[in-house]
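User: What would this chain look like folded?
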Amino acid sequence: MDSYNSPSTKPLYRGTQIVWYVVGFIEALLAFRFVLKLLAANAGAGFTSFIYTVTRPLAYPFMTVFGSSRVEGSIFEWTTILAMFVYALIGWGIVKLLLMGKTVSTPEAATKLEEQEK
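Assistant: Here's the prediction, encoded as structure tokens.
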């Protein structure tokens, strides 16, 4: 059976789409946080407050890893950059794990194993 026509191909594809959508959404929220902090946005403004509230749990595990660089009210939040990197890496890892469930033919598996030995 060809791996493109395997019954597992469509669910795996959908699964990877969902993972990348979630990661992209998280990355976008964190990017907003980073830019708002960098541009010293008014924390009392509705949108700014909303973004800070929503992204706080996402950034929290990284808050004490690095300090923040401050210049005249602007904050370069290194922890947000780290969080974005870690969430992208986690997404990549989940997609790789999902793709391990893809059906492969014996010749295809043999070729991949030979490539890994190099």
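The chain has one domain: 3-117. If you want, I can go into more detail on any region.
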